[in-house]
Amino acid sequence: MSAIECRIQLLKKEDATLEAIAQALFKSWFADFDPVRAKAEGREPDGMAAATTALFPDSFEDSPLGPIPHGWQARSLDSIANYLNGLALQKFPPESEDEFLPVIKIAQLRAGTATYADRASARLKPDYVVHDGDVLFSWSGSLEVEFWCGGDGALNQHLFKVTSTEVPKWFYYLATRQHLPMFRQIAASKATTMGHIQRQHLTQAKVAVPPLPVLTAATEIIEPLLDRRISNSLQMRQLTQLRDTLLPRLISGKLRLPEAQSLSEEAIA
Predict the structure, then answer these.
(1) Residue 51 maps to which CATH number?
(2) Nearest C-alpha neighbor of 147 from the set 160, 132, 126, 159
(3) Into how many domains does the chain fold?
(4) What is the pLDDT of residue 142?
(5) Which of 206, 221, 237 is the last residue of a domain?
(6) CA 118 to CA 155: how far, in whole Å?
(7) Domain range for 83
(8) 153-155, strands of its sheet edge to edge
(9) Any residues with CB less than 8 A from the CB of 25 and at least 6 apart, and which?
(10) I want to staple 201 with a disulfide (CB 3.0 to 4.6 A). Which of 28, 170, 197, 212 is the partner?
């Protein structure tokens, strides 16, 4: 069992590192505009290939966001992505004991699992069904932006499911996360109600969107980082389920320690 725990902890550390790298790169390229600033000053961007450097302009232009790289667009979050609010799922009860979807609320998003969640109809419109790898944003109470990796579930109210046909998933995920501190300040200012944001705040939140060649170059770097993060989270879910299955059997004596160790080693191999 200790092998499973060690593997889970290693995956958590790797996830934190992958997330930090992705956020740092996004901030450098799309918030601080480091490559453009370097070129504007007559310098080569640190550690950047010549072909990638050539994709960035060497000057800025005014925008509602302030100075942004020449040829880029200042866009609102709700113009680059769709923020679909969930349903009041108590109005959509499950069809039976065997046919249902677990309800994904803020608590499930924070825990990363829908175990012991409420149940809802399995026949919801597909848009309101959440799958592994979907981006969820809790806009009320505890504001978080996360990749969901807890299996299929039903999208509850107070959660946005974020999708886009305009930009890659990594871009709208990191752009939304970039605005979390501001959103949390807005929510905290609502002292008389449960802290939340409104759709107008998604309109007010701006991000600099580059031309497609820059997005494509960034996708080649950032997408594998976040894909690995999602893969790690799915592996952690499987290992946690295995641990929770083996432990009661081990305690009850139905499973011997050598057998449990063997199953654990097979799972992490």
Answers:
(1) 1.10.287
(2) 132
(3) 2
(4) 87
(5) 206
(6) 12
(7) 79-206
(8) 119-120, 101-104, 153-155, 129-130
(9) 218, 221, 222
(10) 197
Domain CATH for 104? 3.90.220.20
Q: What is the pLDDT of residues 173-226, one digit of tens each?
A: 999 999 999 999 999 887 556 678 999 999 999 999 999 999 999 999 999 999
In this structure, the answer to whether residues 20 and 119 fall within a common structural domain is no
Q: pLDDT at position 264, please? A: 53
* Residue of 15, 4, 1 lying closest to 230 (CA atoms): 15
Find residue 140's DSSP bridge partners.
196
Residue range 64-116, pLDDT digits in tens: 999 999 999 999 999 999 999 999 999 999 999 999 999 999 999 999 999 89
Pair 49, 161 in one domain: no
CA–CA separation, 141 and 163 (whole Å) = 22
Q: What is the pLDDT of residue 111?
A: 93
User: Closest Cα partner for 145 from 19, 5, 30?
Assistant: 19
Segment holding 218, helix H or strand E = helix 212-252
Place of tokens 């050539």: 54
Helical pair 169-178 and 180-188, crossing angle rounded to 10 deg: 40
How far apart, in whole angstroms, are the C-alpha atoms of residue 120 and residue 181?
Answer: 32
Contact, 202 vs 83, CB < 8 A?
Answer: yes
- Specify the length of the chain in residues: 269
Task: Output the six-digit token pair for 28.
Answer: 């450098």
Q: Are 101 and 119 in contact (CB under 8 A)?
A: yes
Are residues 91 and 30 part of one domain?
Answer: no
